[in-house]
Design a protein that fits this description.
The structure is a homodimer of 452-residue chains. Chain A is of the alpha/beta class. Chain A has helices spanning 12-23, 51-60, 65-73, 79-85, 116-121, 123-146, 163-175, 184-190, 200-206, 209-219, 233-249, 264-277, 293-301, 313-316, 398-411, 431-449; strands at 29-36, 46-47, 93-96, 102-103, 110-115, 152-154, 180-181, 225-227, 256-259, 284-287, 308-311, 326-333, 336-337, 352-358, 364-371, 379-380, 383-387, 390-391, 427-429.
Chain lengths: 452, 452
């Protein structure tokens, strides 16, 4: 399933602005930065994701002949402009936080430097490709923190907002520590481990669990996960016990059972006892059904005898924070730092760098955002990843991103690991950056007061 | 941009269940129904959308050679099963509420009848394609009700969850009454009117509004919409007044201005006065920036002099209700009605029909959900749309769906038009359906108590 890379997947104003830039010969180098304006309510940190797909987009984006044809006759553009689009390519530079990096508001996690028409046109789709994976990775990280050591599986494809969302969600969750996904295409496209069970419809179509469990175990003997809650969870568990001996004679091992409704702690305890007393201590229990990080934390705290969890809808739509206040803003054009000052949405000007500092125990203590050439103590987080439209390295293996993300969660200050809002992590705006903002504002004021 | 129709865009368990159905020779006719379990908090109704894409999926879904190859070697399936998938096609029947129909919980808006392996396999993607457009159409309908007569434009692509979500959101909003979208691909693919303005980056790159407005107006003289809030909204409005005369001499008419931040009512009033006093009463005001149905209602109630609105993020992610408690459930197999009884998630068995009744003034008064052959008073909402895998009619023109949706919103009982939760609309479960549920439960009980 190829990433959608149509150049028409954008906002109309990107194209009308390009028509303006071309006509006014505005092709100087521009720098745009992608950052979050604020954390979603109740959140303490974010995890960067989606860079791989963003770079793939930048490397391949172009206008196909049929798209140019449509643009020429849609009534919004001049023929000469559409002709120029035929040779449009992104040949710029990109600096970015590696995927899996923890970040905070005001920190540019992607910085794009290219001639203005190139850096501008990619805005809509770049935000589209960065925001959503970042949301899901950030939500998934909370789930991982809520149930340490428990395998979590993404079950959310059906309620994701479209197929691309389902695939990107599976990837984002996996890279921060989920064990895998149920989404088959994500298994193929990204090599993510696949997990699956059975649906209530199978039990219903077979009439009852006796027939359903037999049929399923014989058809899929390597992955016998039996669903208990179609009619009565504990009764179904007793059926598992009765059938296990019969199936064992056929060489089939029941691996796991799934509980998908009701009081999961209470059911899991009863089911565990039935399985143990029935001589099936090795059969694990998987729970699903409306889970999110808070319910995971409750089940974990209650020491519910649940071995693994399926997390679906709330993960794939990032239910408590379905969008991120984020922006891709022009910070420099033709060597001049610039910023907008819209009420409540002012941005910081200039090409920036973010430095992170750590305590002796390894925990992150404080970030500093400053102008690119203002070297500060700490680790510089923005790294070059693309030059002249070409990546500087092949796609990072997911295993590597998983290692990085795990390390990042380890280094989170304790307060920030809480599911509840903690004191904000310190992100300082360096004096050099504040000075640059004043300089940019003064330049605009001077321009405005000059006679034109 | 073609709809993604890969057969691997599904959950693993659909395929393992199919392996079971094939092995157990379970190929009898099954009926599944898609319905909402409950309304999202604070909502009074839903609007059906997404059927067109769902039917497109059912008509075209198949396993491509490379997908079969991958399935054969992924380790989850037996070779004989994968061979059978090569000829898998959906050749079933579909009944559905036409798009744009208002509906309520427990009402099946799509009913699929096909051999079990066909009806089962489509579950994940069918939910994926129906849930999200329905969410956006329902949210968009609230926006339309909140600002009657005001043109609304979808500005949400960048924060939609992926490209497919952005396209489907543009379509769903348009079909319930939005004037159009900024998403170019939605204009091309669905023929939705496109609207666009300019971004702050253009003003910043040009240095100030004087240069930016001149450049833009000359480059796009047919669609001069000028953005006011990059630095100072009212000062920018005064620049518009000064430039309008100069541009008029070049034959260029300033059509509109946009305000994107701050107190929109206060700014709109000041800007309106500046424009009127500057001799520009015909220049309209477009407002955007964090709008949703509640903010639209406030602006409308305040009689803010705003002529049109851009509604973005909150629409495209259905921010207050980013998912719908919905399901696609087996209701009949091999002539036997069936239902699951999972706690809190029990479903109604059997093939159903929904009848809607209206008052003399045309308002809808009461729906009855019953078994398919239990004729009730009122209009039957489920209509045949596909037989044997083929549609019964070509894709419905969006103009037609828009007319229907407008009529539906007209016929909503007054209480339900409120943005706040009202007394629920009466949806009755007919006695015949209750009797069928008892019958289905009795059959399962009998099966379970029989010696096996």
């Amino acid at each position: 399933m190829a990433l959608e890379t149509s150049a028409l997947a954008t906002d109309l104003y990107q194209l009308t602005m390009l028509q303006c830039y071309f006509r006014a010969e505005m092709r100087e180098v521009a720098t745009f930065e992608f950052y979050a304006r604020r954390l979603p309510p109740g959140r303490n940190f974010l995890v960067a994701a989606g860079l791989e797909q963003a770079l793939e987009l930048l490397e391949t984006l172009h206008f196909a002949p049929d798209e140019l044809e449509w643009l020429a006759r849609c009534g919004h553009f001049q023929p000469a402009f559409v002709e120029q689009l035929a040779i449009w390519r992104f040949a710029g530079d990109v600096h970015a936080f590696p995927e899996g990096t923890v970040f905070f508001p005001d920190e540019p996690l992607v910085r794009v430097t290219a001639p203005l028409p190139a850096a501008q046109l990619v805005e809509s789709r770049l935000i589209n490709l960065l925001q959503f994976p970042t949301l899901v990775a950030s939500k998934a990280a909370r789930c991982v923190l809520a149930a340490p050591g428990k395998p979590l599986v993404d079950f959310g494809f059906r309620r994701a907002h479209g197929v691309e969302a389902g695939l990107l969600a599976a990837r984002a969750a996996y890279l921060v520590g989920f064990a895998g996904t149920a989404t088959v295409a994500a298994g193929r496209d990204f090599g993510i481990p696949l997990f699956g069970t059975m649906a209530h419809s199978l039990v219903q179509a077979c009439g009852d669990e006796v027939a359903a469990f037999r049929n399923f175990a014989r058809a899929c003997p390597d992955n016998v996960v039996l669903l208990l809650d179609t009619y009565d969870t504990e009764e179904a568990a007793r059926i598992v016990v009765r059938l296990a001996t019969e199936l064992a004679r056929e060489g089939i091992v029941v691996r796991s059972v799934r509980i998908d409704s009701g009081d999961l702690t209470a059911h899991a305890r009863k089911v565990r006892r039935i399985l143990d007393e029935g001589g099936l201590p090795g059969v694990t229990i998987l729970a699903s059904g409306g889970l999110d990080e808070r319910k995971l934390a409750e089940l974990y705290a209650a020491r519910a005898p649940i071995d693994a969890f399926g997390v679906g809808t709330s993960l794939d739509v990032s239910a408590d924070a379905p969008y991120l206040e984020c922006a891709y803003k022009l910070v420099e054009y033709a060597g001049r730092p610039t910023r907008k000052r819209s009420e409540g949405k002012a941005s910081w000007p200039g090409r920036k760098q973010v430095y992170r500092n750590f305590a002796a125990n390894g925990q992150m203590t404080r970030d500093v955002v400053t102008v690119d050439d203002d070297r500060q103590a700490g680790t510089a987080l923005l790294q070059p990843v693309m030059r002249g439209g070409k990546r500087l390295a092949p796609a990072e293996p997911l295993a590597e991103i998983r290692r990085r993300a795990a390390g990042e969660l380890e280094r989170l200050p304790d307060g920030l690991r809480s599911l509840d809002a903690a004191a904000p992590y310190p992100v300082e705006i360096a004096p050099a950056l504040r000075a640059l903002a004043e300089e940019a504002d003064a330049r605009v004021a001077a321009l405005r007061s000059a006679p034109r």
